[in-house]
Amino acid sequence: MTPDVPSPLRDAVQRDLRPTRPLRPPFVRALVLIPLAVAIVISVPGLRFFRSDMAAIGFVKAWGFSFGQALAGLIIIAVALRESIPGRGLSRRAIAVTFIVGLAIPLVLLAATASAYDVGPEPGLGLQEGIGCFRVSAISAIPALLAAAFLAARAFPMRPALAGALYGLGCGLIADAGLRLFCDYTEPAHVLFGHGGAIVAAMVFGAVVSKFIPRP
Amino acid sequence: MAPRAKEDGGRMDPPEAELCAHMKAYLDGEIEAFDALYVAFAGRLRGYLLSQCRDATLADDLLQETFMQIHRSRRTYQPGRPVTPWVYAIARHVYLMKRRSAGRRARFEESLAADARADDEVSRDALDVMVSGDEVRRALRGVPEDQREALLMHHVEGWSFHEIASRLGIRVNAAKTRAFRGMKKMRDYLK
Question: Which of A19, A172, A198, B65 is deepest in the core (most CB within 10 A)?
Answer without folding.
Answer: A172
